[in-house]
Specification:
By secondary structure, this protein is an alpha+beta fold. The protein is built from 7 helices and 20 strands. Strands 3, 4, 5, 6, 7, 8, 9, 10, 11, 12, 13, 14 and 15 form a 13-stranded mixed β-sheet that branches. A 3-stranded mixed β-sheet has the order 17-20-19. The chain starts with a helix and ends with a strand. About 14% of the residues have low confidence.
Length: 332
């Protein structure tokens, strides 16, 4: 077993979104060795997530104090969520390692290798999940998302997605990799791409960074023919009009979330609010519907939700207040 200092460094790098795939696999293997290792990981994660601004530095105003309390409660809620998810999955699926923000690693018993087995991973609102599948495929699962994935040795590799995920798929000869959404299927060989398919969103998006993907029909959704995407292209399906659009995009705008970085170019405040609610597990209410027509451009990395709200407040003609566990936005 490695000494705890290098492991602690790996854990913190993972939580900061700076641990590469090789390091993630090493950390996953180490945590799966024993309950003591899993417990140590959880302790370091709790300390990392519980760090908040020093209360003595809070300005002596009622609004600033409410913001401080809101930040503390939000952080604690995220800790409880992650701890609940951690031990829930360890208890339910002993063969699968899903710890903290769901690091995944699987050992398949011999008697299961002849037929597909499905496991489920969930990233609750306010947290992000990272998994390594048995074939070394790497998946980032965005907040408020769920996947069910096959782990059998034979047949196609299948993932059923509700929400958003970024994939780096390992090539396995004669074994296709298929991402099933509620509408179309995404077939890949070995590539990097993002699929955004939240049930409550008005559109489904597939964004390709590397390789080639094939968009295919399902029983619910019929295409005139299969659609190939090339790197730098995005396919958008609009649920209301049932129309498809293929367009060139800056892929980092749609995939940077996996690196704890958010980039916006004239994003509508209505979309931004949904994104912040999912990412931070908070409730945001808008008192004046006109506010939803505002647009915001910027880059966010590792800031808290209140730090982001401060920036938006200085950029757009709005102000916000904390009422209980809710952020309320008003028009200036």
């Amino acid at each position: 077993m490695e000494s705890q200092n290098p492991i602690r460094t790996k854990i913190i790098a993972f939580l900061d979104g700076e641990l590469g795939q090789e390091g993630l696999k090493e950390l996953s293997d180490w945590v799966s060795e024993s309950k003591e290792n899993a417990r140590y990981y959880s302790e370091i994660k709790d300390l990392w997530e519980a760090s908040v601004s020093n209360a003595s530095k809070i300005a002596d105003t009622e609004n600033e104090w409410r913001k401080f309390i809101f930040r503390v409660r939000t952080d604690n809620k995220r800790i409880l969520k992650s701890r609940s998810i951690t031990w829930k999955f360890i208890a339910r699926i002993a063969a699968v390692l899903i710890v903290g923000i769901l690091i995944g690693s699987l050992l398949i018993p011999d008697f299961l290798k002849t037929r597909p087995v499905y496991c489920t991973a969930i990233a609750p609102e306010g947290s992000m999940s990272k998994l390594v599948l048995p074939d070394s495929t790497y998946i980032c699962l965005n907040a408020g998302s769920e996947i069910r994935y096959s782990v059998g040795a034979g047949g196609p590799r299948e993932v059923f997605l509700h929400g958003e995920a970024w994939f780096s798929v390992s090539h396995v000869k004669n074994r296709a990799f298929v991402v099933h959404t509620s509408f179309y299927d995404v077939n890949v060989v070995g590539t990097e791409f993002n699929v955004k398919a939240y049930d409550t969103d008005s559109r489904v998006e597939t964004t390709l960074e590397k390789g080639v993907v094939l968009i295919c029909s399902t029983e619910k959704f019929r295409l005139l023919k299969d659609i190939y995407l090339n790197p730098g292209e995005q396919l958008v399906y609009y649920k209301e009009t049932k129309k498809l659009q293929i367009k060139p995009v800056n892929t980092s705008l749609f995939t940077s979330w996996k690196d704890n970085k958010l980039e916006f170019i004239k994003m509508g405040l209505d979309e931004l609010i949904v994104l912040l609610e999912r990412r931070y597990g908070v409730d945001i209410e808008v008192e004046n519907p006109e506010i939803l027509n505002f647009h915001y451009s910027g880059t966010i990395k590792n800031e808290s939700v209140l730090e982001i709200m401060d920036v938006i407040e200085h950029t757009l003609p709005i102000r916000y207040e904390i009422e209980g566990q809710t952020i309320k936005i008003y028009k200036n």
